[in-house]
Amino acid sequence: MNKYYKSTIGSLFLFLICTCVFEGEAQTNPLWTQQKVKNYLLHMTVLEVKEFLTKSDMVIIPVGALEQHGNHLPIGTDFLNGVERCKLIAQQRDILVCPVLMIGQSPYHMGFAGTITLSAELILKVHLEAVESLIQHGFKRFIIMNAHGGNRAITTLLVDQINQTTAGVAVSFGQAIGPFLENQPQNRTDVLDRHAGTPETSNSMYLIPSLVQLDKAEASVLTLPNHLRDMLPAVIAGEPTALMLFLAEGLKKESTRKKTSAAEMSTTGVWGERNPKEATIERGANHTNNIVNAAVGFIDRWNELVPFNRTD
Fold first, then answer.
1. 245: alpha, beta or left, given left = phi > 0 and alpha = psi -120 to 50?
2. Regarding the domain delimited by 41-184+288-305, which CATH topology (the fold level of the hierarchy) does it fall under?
3. Which residues contact 116 (CB under 8 A, 6 or more apart)?
4. With 80 as the cut, is the pLDDT of residue 1 above it?
5. CA 163 to CA 70: how far, in whole Å?
6. 3-state class of 67 per DSSP?
7. Which residues of 203-229 are buried (b: 16+ CB within 10 A; e: fewer)?
8. Cβ neighbours of 175 (radius 10 Å)
9. How far is the C-alpha of 146 from the C-alpha of 104, rounded, in Å?
10. What is the rounded distance in angstroms from the CA atom of residue 13 to the CA atom of residue 8?
11. What mean pLDDT do residues 171-191 have?
12. Which helix H or strand E contains 142, and what residues bound it?
């Protein structure tokens, strides 16, 4: 056998070995880490949805946002935390988890890179059309979970429009679970501690732990309009009127000239002066479990008052 044939055969043999090794080590996507979650629409097949509809006609829709959450929490915090809460609820009761949009209304965070915002009209329209699709398949009852404070008015209107314009029946998650929540010890603070602060960081440490970079968290320096700064003691104390007026002006986009967009008020995007490093997993777990248990209590009561009947 001459040198040419030996070289050709050797190269072919080496190619076959490399091919077998490559196929053996990389048969699936190395970045895929998800496990199948029960009652989560994104993971379900057509047959599984049909089977689900023999047991329940109830859907929970988290309405989140893609917006800055300081230097330590991901842009998707609101969306991801909302979805994870819904998943936990759906492991205890038959309710379909159906996220529709990742993006919410967040114009006041646009001063920080990564934030994406949509108009209220578009968010409402997309969710209504999604609900109509689900109704066509046989779903009738909808729980709308607002997972981002800036969506409150939108989700309130969404619930109303589902009830007014479709064959479905909808309720607001926050209002629905209120009577079933357990009173928990208050984490008192003497400084403002809201967006991306210790409450949200604690929740994220429990719900999406691998995405929290607590080492990058730092206390923010706030620059508030004088009248809002003067209002802070009453706001921190939980005085309802002060809080209502504070939120009516706080966190509004730059074009309103209120000087309260996130970038105008906060050095880091955190709306608070407490260091987020004070957050704890235990606090996040307690808060989440309280919410999940309350949701289960509401679902059970709804099923008692209006039993599921797939023949309707």
1. alpha
2. Rossmann fold (3.40.50)
3. 66, 67, 103, 106
4. no
5. 37
6. coil
7. bbbbbbeeebeeeebebbebebeeebe
8. 12
9. 10
10. 9
11. 91
12. strand 141-146
CA distance 101 to 152: 15
Quote the pTM value: 0.90
d(CA 86, CA 132): 20
Please tell me the predicted confidence (pLDDT) of residue 12: 61
- Residue 83's identity, in one-letter code, is V
- Tokens 């009209």: give the residue: 121
Sign of the C-alpha dihedral computed for residues 168, 117, 247 and 270 taken in this order:
positive
Contacts of 84 (CB under 8 A, 6+ apart): 207, 208
Give the separation between CA 310 and CA 312, rounded to whole angstroms. 6
pLDDT digits (tens, 9 = 90+) for 17-47: 555 545 556 699 999 999 999 999 999 999 9
Q: How far is CA 299 from CA 34, 292, 304, in A?
A: 27, 11, 9
Sketch the domain layout of the chain as residue ranges: 41-184+288-305
Which tokens belong to 202? 């604690």
The set of residues, in sequence order, having a beta carbon less than 8 Å from that of 196 and lying 6+ positions away, is 68, 69, 70, 72, 73, 77, 269, 270, 271, 272, 276
pLDDT at 312 over 80: no
